[in-house]
Design a protein that fits this description.
heterodimer; A: about 120 residues; alpha/beta; Rossmann fold; 5 strands; about 40% helix; globular; B: about 250 residues; mainly alpha; 2 domains; 8 helices; disordered N terminus
Chain lengths: ~120, ~250
């Protein structure tokens, strides 16, 4: 089942890696953003099915951006992908209505979440 | 230095990357080397002022010397005119007009040169200094500060690319650290659990765990942007603060 995905990460290498993981199952990366501000702008323009969202970013962090995207579109599907520990964000993420959290060192888990 | 000491040392740095650094340093001693690199652009600012003052100073001295050379004959003639009043010899009017023109032309040339110089310094030299200082910080392992400024011009592109390298480096290191830590914990647990059954293998597993810990320690030497590594967990020390900001806004 192919999904249109917006990849948000400040590191160009990480964006490449995520794209590589998403490609074989047939997902399409419709856009890449390198901070929260770009992510919001691109979300409004591209209306992707899913957003993979880094947390630590300059200009605007992922949590803030996700909240703004969810304010704009309550049905937005956002998956956080971060190096940080999930424990600290679990409640905040659940509360805001994001799909889930994947640690970057197990990036492949993201495929499971996308299929759900 | 054990891990606990390291985390203690890092805490004030990470919680407030810019402001907390300067006052923190003197108390700690020993880490004076870090000082210059902990104040982003501090050195660049210093150089900025120095470069401009030096440039304008040299220019002023040159202009003054030029002025003296151009005016010298007039002064001599005037002196001569006062001393030998009986000798009429009025200065040729064309000479004065010529001198005036030379003077105006020289002043204009200096002004143009000053403007060009300031432009070159501001548009080229200072960005290069900024980029150099930030690159040095990155090389020294501080990934908290990036090259500041606008990125649309050619030098800005250079800055943006260096920033990208720094962000990628943080990403690789975080990945290595996460992997090293989780695998070390797993290896230790397996070695513990099956110590009796697989005596030799358990020894090897402990070796692996040790190697992985060495990797962890290496990565902990870096200063990250909005990430603090301590006892196996990567947290954002700014998160509480920004969460407060977010909920209040």
């Amino acid at each position: 089942m192919s999904k249109r995905i917006l990849v948000v990460d400040d590191s160009s290498m990480m964006r490449k890696m995520i794209t590589k993981i998403l490609f074989p199952p047939g997902h399409v990366v419709v856009g890449e953003a390198k901070n929260g501000l770009e992510a919001i702008e691109l979300y409004k323009k591209l209306r992707p099915d899913i957003v993979t969202m880094d947390i630590t970013m300059r200009e605007m962090d992922g949590i803030t951006a996700a909240k703004e995207i969810l304010d704009f579109d309550g049905d937005a599907r956002i998956i956080f992908l971060s190096n940080l520990d999930e424990a600290k964000y679990r409640d905040e993420i659940k509360e805001m209505g994001a799909v889930g959290f994947v640690n970057k060192y197990q990036s492949r888990e993201i495929l499971g979440l996308i299929d759900e | 230095m054990n891990d606990q000491e390291r985390t203690k040392m890092k805490r004030p740095t990470a919680s407030n990357p810019i402001a907390a650094d300067a006052p923190r340093e003197p108390a700690e001693g020993g880490s004076a080397v870090r000082k210059a690199s902990d104040i982003p652009g501090g050195k660049a600012l210093l150089s900025q002022g120095k470069v401009l003052v030096l440039f304008l100073g040299v220019l002023t001295v040159l202009f003054a010397a030029n002025l003296l050379v151009v005016m010298a004959p007039v002064a001599e003639e005037a002196a001569a005119g006062v001393a030998l009043e009986e000798k009429p010899a009025p200065p040729a009017p064309w000479l004065e007009a010529y001198q005036r023109r030379v003077l105006i032309a020289t002043a204009a040339a200096y002004l143009a040169f000053a403007v060009c110089g300031i432009l070159v310094i501001q548009q080229v030299l200072l960005p290069i200094i900024r980029i150099r200082e930030t690159t040095r910080e990155i090389a020294e392992g501080n990934l908290r500060n990036l090259v500041a400024g606008r990125y649309e011009r050619s030098l800005g592109h250079l800055g943006a690319m260096i920033n990208d390298i720094a962000m990628n480096l943080q990403e690789i290191l975080m990945l290595a650290w996460n992997n090293a830590h989780k695998n070390a914990v797993t290896a230790d647990r397996i070695a513990e659990q099956y110590a009796d059954e697989i005596r030799e293998a358990a020894g090897e597993l402990r070796g692996i765990a040790e190697n992985l810990r060495a990797m962890e320690v290496l990565v902990q030497e870096y200063d990250f942007y909005h990430v603090q590594l301590e006892s196996g967990s990567a947290v954002d020390p700014e998160a509480d603060k920004s969460a407060g900001k977010r909920s209040s806004s």
